[in-house]
């Protein structure tokens, strides 16, 4: 018989709430620090920079998030499997690949930022910031894999502290420019690597010296290749508007959609950060054929994201109702800002449901199915976004992202039921 999911009412009991708080407390502290820092940076830039420069900054955050997703698919997934299995050769190969990936990210990000309209003096610190942030994702994820939450949380807190302090200094001295802001972000990303300590960098150095490409290829064929394809297609589903609006209508036109995403930044970062905690737990639940544990993890994960979404929407409503001047100093229309915020809130609501389901499917090894599903949803998202952009404008283009998210969620649900049924059959075989 199928194990029952936790009863809805059980989550409202005090012990359940305390357990949920204990499970996510430290994990949430780090994302809150990073999210708060990015929110402050975006708030400062939306007030003090022109629409084009704010659009470039928002584009950098979008592309940096994509780089972190590539790191997760190409490096974190095989690293998780190799550490769980004790496969030191694959671990070494992953860390060797990490160095080359970071260099590639730096080059590509600098060129992408420059192509979006920023001079090289601005593009270099912003591009290097994104590359270091992507590399930090590997270090952060490894800490979670090894059960060392504290270094990961300290890394987030240090990053947030340096960003807030640096940008606060720029604001007080009236030197808030895109170039100096990029340099502060780069400094913060570098400083956030310190908590991972000498052990992590010894592992990195050992992997760089002894890792071999041939040891990485089996993981690439079975896991990473399909996962990277899924990430690329998912990026097209989730952020087609960022690329299409920026390169068709210009970075200034991307400012309003970016403002909507800015208001949803806290829950967005939670959706990105919490999988590092839950991925190893879900993999272990599948390995043990523990359906009850898997259901509990899935339920608590979705519950945490729902709470984060509710808090984020309340904050957005408060800002738009009572302090709109904090966001709209550069002349953005309130009506357009509210429309963008509502569309972004709908997008985040769908993602809060589908992110835990997608992570469960990754833990089940359904990388090929996810890649095929991502191809379909990417097609929906790109076509819908382009049509809405050309007919109704940049803010309406967010509707294409919403349609892509709904398409991928609709496809994930039967896959999730199938994976869960296969676990039940294997348990009783």
Q: Can you offer a commentary on this structure?
A:
This protein is an all-alpha fold and 429 residues long. The protein has one domain (8-428). Helix content is 85%, strand content 0%. The chain has helices spanning 14-48, 51-85, 88-115, 120-145, 149-172, 178-191, 197-210, 213-249, 255-263, 265-273, 275-287, 291-322, 334-363, 367-392, 398-428. The two termini are 13 Å apart. Residues 1-12 have low confidence and may be disordered.
For the termini, the CA-CA separation is 13 Å
Question: What do the pLDDT scores average to?
Answer: 80
Quaternary structure classification: single chain
Low-confidence stretches: 1-12
The largest pleated sheet is described as: none
Number of domains: 1
The portion of residues forming beta strands comes to: under 5%
Q: Which percent bin holds the helix content?
A: over 70%
Cα Rg: 21 Å
Label the structural class: mainly alpha
**What is the chain-wise order of helices and strands?**
HHHHHHHHHHHHHHH
**C-alpha geometry:** globular
Given the structure, what is the number of helices? Answer: 15
């Amino acid at each position: 018989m199928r194990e029952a999911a936790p009863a809805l009412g059980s989550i409202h009991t005090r012990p359940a709430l305390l357990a949920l708080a204990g499970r996510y407390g430290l994990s949430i502290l780090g994302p809150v620090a990073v999210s708060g820092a990015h929110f402050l940076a975006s708030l400062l830039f939306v007030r003090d920079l022109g629409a084009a420069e704010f659009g470039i900054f928002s584009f950098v955050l979008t592309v940096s998030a994509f780089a972190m997703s590539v790191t997760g698919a190409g490096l974190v997934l095989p690293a998780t499997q190799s550490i769980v299995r004790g496969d030191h050769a694959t671990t070494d190969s992953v860390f060797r690949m990490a160095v080359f990936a970071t260099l590639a990210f730096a080059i590509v990000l600098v060129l992408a930022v420059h192509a979006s309209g920023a001079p090289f003096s601005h593009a270099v610190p912003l591009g290097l910031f994104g590359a270091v942030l992507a590399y930090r994702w590997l270090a952060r994820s490894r800490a979670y894999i090894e059960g060392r939450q504290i270094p990961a949380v300290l890394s987030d807190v240090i990053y947030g502290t340096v960003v807030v302090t640096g940008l606060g200094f720029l604001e007080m001295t009236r030197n808030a420019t895109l170039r100096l802001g990029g340099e502060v972000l780069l400094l913060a990303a570098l400083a956030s690597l310190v908590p991972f300590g000498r052990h992590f960098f010894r592992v990195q150095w050992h992997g760089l010296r002894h890792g071999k490409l041939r040891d990485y290829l089996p993981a690439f064929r079975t896991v990473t290749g399909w996962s990277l394809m899924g990430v690329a297609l998912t990026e097209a589903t989730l952020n087609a508007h960022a690329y299409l609006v920026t390169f068709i209508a210009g970075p200034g036109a991307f400012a309003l959609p970016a403002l909507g995403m800015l208001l949803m930044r806290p829950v967005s970062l939670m959706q990105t950060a919490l999988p590092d905690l839950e991925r190893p737990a879900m993999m272990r639940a599948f390995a043990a054929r523990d359906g009850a544990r898997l259901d509990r993890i899935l339920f608590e994960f979705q519950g945490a994201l729902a709470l984060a979404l509710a808090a984020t929407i309340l904050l957005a409503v408060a800002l738009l109702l009572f302090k709109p001047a904090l966001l709209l100093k550069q002349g953005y229309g309130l009506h357009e800002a509210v429309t963008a915020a509502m569309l972004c809130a709908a997008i985040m609501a769908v993602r809060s449901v589908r992110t835990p389901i997608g992570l469960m499917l990754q833990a089940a090894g359904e990388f090929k199915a996810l890649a095929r599903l991502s191809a379909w949803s990417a097609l929906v998202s790109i076509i819908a976004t382009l049509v809405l952009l050309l007919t109704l404008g940049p803010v309406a283009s967010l509707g294409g992202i919403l349609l892509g998210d709904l398409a991928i969620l609709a496809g994930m649900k039967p896959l999730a039921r199938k994976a869960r049924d296969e676990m039940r059959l294997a348990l009783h075989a």
